[in-house]
Amino acid sequence: MSAIKQYKISVPDTAIETLRKKLELAVLPGQTKFSNDWKYGTPLNDIRRIVEHWQQKFNWRQIEAKLNELPQFTTKISVDGHEDSLEIHFIHQKGADANSIPLLFCHGWAGSFLEVTKVLPLLTSRVDGSEQTFHVVAPSMPNCGFSQRTSNPGFGVLQYAEVCHKLMLQLGYEKYVTQGGDWGFLITRALGILYPSHVLASHLNFILTSPPSPLSTPLLVLQYLTGRYTASEKAGLERSQWFRTEGSGYNQIQSTKPHTLGFALADSPVALLAWIYEKLHDWTDHYSWNDEEVLTWISIYLFSRAGADASIRLYYEILNPVDPSAKMESFMKWNNTPLGLSYFPRDVVVLPSSWGRTLGPVVFEKRHDKGGHFAAYEKPEMLADDIRKMISNGEISLANTA
Question: Which residues contact 98 (CB under 8 A, 6 or more apart)?
């Protein structure tokens, strides 16, 4: 078993100097009457302002020092058929109590381990003695953040799940709960399928299911045809339709030709900023991003160990899995892992609650009236409360599952 080593972020001075030079030489698009219309994509004025802030005010070393206050570690993990010693970066914050439950936090794209930072103190500490606490483990997924780049094709959801499971075992957590959104939905579902005796429950803030079928779910088809949904569910279906028609172009590119886009993400900090900033705007519930937050978020990609281009390859592997069992629909079928489902209205896919219940035994669900895709960062109090209620409702503990 590989050693667990403490880790501190330390971006080379040469990388910061290269960024400075590239920002000085950056060429922005020409001005038009609609350069700042969000319908066309990321606005010129926003990028111009953020780039100026990047050049004149943003201090990565201060951000780095703040991030290094987090308990960060690395370890090496072997991945069957792929990697002998893949170095994985992760946050590991112990809970306040002896009965703290291990919780694996799985980030997605265009997120990172940063998503856990606001919810971390809420889950590991308590206000009174009745609140369940957690030992939180939040890895930088392979090809993201400060984890290593993978070297072979076909490194998909099953391999991400294997990395996460082996990480928990290395930390001594034989049984644990999982939390995921975006990619984390798929990784969390894979963990429940591959390692059912280890995963006590899964909390999801991004819920995908197969569409209702006349053969397998006739009542859901009838519900859909008759429109028997709540106002929240109808709004969610409208939001989901918006994403399919207007917001999913990035997905088509990243899942078919990731290397082509990768040249821009690897070479141009402004291209990287524009590509991800659009998602921070469109996928959140009017969250008031300040320029420091945006640039911190972007910097995790810019200074990542694997390079920003590596982060998007999972989209291709999801669409083109080597193993048939890794097809997306495989993770949308019923399994017996207890579930907590949290729906946030400005997520990119917001399905009816009855659809979510086809995934497994739901012990907790809630449809919130605020929040978007990055729930742990946008609405950390809501997410922490939902996770605790899942544990309480499902009567989940380490003691009764040992």
Answer: none
Residue 373 falls in the annotated catalytic set: yes
- CA dist 333 and 352 (Å) reads 16
What pLDDT is attached to residue 401? 44
Position 216 scores a pLDDT of 84
> How far is 191 from 166, CA to CA, in rounded Å?
11
Provide the number of structural domains found in the chain: 1
* pLDDT number for residue 242: 97
Q: What does the alpha-carbon distance between residue 158 and residue 401 come to, in Å, rounded to a whole number? A: 25
What is the extent of the structural domain holding 137? Answer: 69-207+323-401
pLDDT the model gives residue 402: 38
Beta bridge partners of 343: 367
Q: pLDDT at position 292, please?
A: 98
Q: Please say if 315 is a catalytic residue.
A: yes
What confidence score (pLDDT) does residue 129 get?
A: 67
CATH of the domain at 333: 3.40.50.1820
For residues 109 and 140, is the Cβ–Cβ distance under 8 A?
no
Burial code of 210-241, b = ≥16 C-beta within 10 A, e = fewer? Answer: eebeeeebeebeebbeeeebeebbebbbebbe
Among residues 315, 316, 343, 377, the one annotated as catalytic is 315
**Closest alpha carbon to 201 in 180, 223, 226:** 180
**Assigned token pair, 279:** 């998602």
- Is 138 contained in some domain? yes
Q: Which residues have a Cβ under 8 Å from the Cβ of 199 and sit 6 or more positions away?
A: 175, 176, 177, 178, 191, 192, 337
Distance separating alpha carbons of residues 299 and 64, to the nearest angstrom: 10
Spatial CB neighbours of 102, under 8 Å, sequence gap ≥ 6:
134, 135, 137, 168, 171, 173, 175, 176, 177
Q: Out of 135, 160, 176, 182, pick the active-site residue.
A: 182
Residues of the chain falling short of pLDDT 50: 400-402
Answer whether residue 17 is part of any domain.
no
Catalytic-role residue among 203, 301, 373, 377: 373
Q: What is the secondary structure of 68-105 as a DSSP string?
A: TTS-EEEEEEEETTTEEEEEEEEEEE--SSTTPEEEEE
Q: Is residue 222 part of a domain?
A: no
In a domain, 245, yes or no: no
